[in-house]
Structure prediction request, 299 residues.
Amino acid sequence: MNERDLRYFAAIVKFSSMRRAAERLHISQPALTKCIGRLEEQLNARLFERKGRQVVLTPVGEVMARRCKLILQHIDEACREVGEHAEGSLGHLRLGVAATLTEFLLPNALSELLKQTPGVTLSLTVGMSDVLRDGLLRDELDMVLGPLISSEELEGAAIVEDEVVVVASRDHPLAKCVPQLEQLNDYQWILPSGNMATRRWLEQTFADHGMAAPKAQIEVSSLALMPRLIARTDLLSFISRRNLRSPPFSDSLVELPFRETTLHRHFGLMTRRDSYLSPACQSLMTLLRERGKEMYHAN
Prediction:
């Protein structure tokens, strides 16, 4: 069993197609079929079966796919670690960050990191927390800063507490009275996509109180856009309370203070269990553990 065969196997799993995998790998389909034949002969088991135009994993193939993913991750991490030691470099950090932390924590953290370790290189991905988590699990990211989640595959460390609340523009009708919870159903909302954890939590909270789900007139994939839209419309939304303390939105947004719709969460850093962490990654982790809370509330 060699690395090339494992990577070919992983490509077929990814695309569920011999043809597409062969095209992406720039090899012939017969060569790819021969590779799978070698693996199946070594394992004395079938790895794939055909369903229409797709190939799907057998139960043995499912086990092999999980093992293959771990093996290739370890190989890639070993190459990175050895290469960085050989070059004497601090390494490269692939960092994923949720929008709220991008605005309120990351500028302070990265400026301090560059002072401490000027040789570091970094690629930054800003996105929704579920997308970042999946990127971390696929070894596309080394570390994610965002809402902590429970996972057997990930390790997390809390940095700062956060609260997500219902907000409106200062000129909204509900901002000029003492609103009742049920009145939240009378207005349209701007919300993140339906698979976001905060959106699911809000919808479940409404359901628990016998209310219809919030009516999303606008769905966004960029949380950074939400405060500006809230400030200029009569749309309600559900965002971090931290946004209400920062100009220019401190003067244009208000919280609608409902205990029932206040979500308490922890922001922190997450890495894959037992993964290789470059010196650059370790430096940022130490900095955030020691000063992350201070940096988050600095401005």
In short: The chain has three domains: 3-85, 90-160+266-296, 161-264.
